[in-house]
Amino acid sequence: MGIDLSKLSRYPAPIRLTVFVLILGLVWIPIALPIQWFVSLHAASPAESSNTATLLTLPLLYIEFILLVRFWGRRVYQQPNLLWRYGLEFSRRSGRELLLGLTIGFLSLFALFIFQGAAGWLIWQPPPVTLVHLVLEGFVVALAIGFAEELLFRGWLLDELQRDYDPKIALWVSALIFAAVHGIKPQFPALLLFGATLVWAKRSRTSWEVLNLEKIRRSRLALPMGLHAGLVWGYYIINVGQWVQYPNHAPVWVTGIDRNPLAGLAGILFLCILALLMRQLARKRE
Questions:
Q1: pLDDT of 9-36, one tens digit each?
Q2: How far apart are alpha carbons 159 and 13 in whole angstroms?
Q3: What is the mean pLDDT of residues 223-241?
């Protein structure tokens, strides 16, 4: 006799989230531990062991996450198209929205650094000789991060919260969890604001659509994916390429602690502008 998992849909969101994460961990850990053990035996250093194990196990974890989401949709909610309901789609429309987000994120990040340079808070260095390689490598890394984190936080997590709570509560709780997962660090307030900005970006792409003769109001993920990836892409090029240098007189509370632009006043103000833009777009769509 099979277990009736549809009963889970009637439990509060914290319980559903906990059960989902427990299932994910129980399946992933028996796979990840042998891989980490094997890598540690052949790695030249602990750092190499950690990096190699992460590169091998994280993709497996994410594949498992997507498979579990599909299973969760069929067995818990009787919604086999749960990824589509999250806002994931591969279409020309999504391609345009992804490109728009990439452009806004990338140019906004460079605008922040250009502003700081004009204010005398940083000094631009000659472009790295590996600039083309950095641009291409950063693009791939940024797209992977944008896709993975947006499907996780603005897809699965936000959907579970919105099933139980008011949209505003769901927005801020998801943003809080997003910031906390990245660590309680100086950039925590900026990450909290960034999490909210990405929810507004998603809600700015809301429309009524038909699925199986049912009219559904859904928000698409392509814009926040592109926005997230664009910011990561720009920062990757500047940071890994060591394109800027901070003079000793530059105030770190303005430019960012440990050279992280999100851990400073300038970065937070820049995110406020971006947040207001996305919030206004979301309000117009609503």
A1: 999 999 999 999 999 999 999 998 898 8
A2: 10
A3: 96
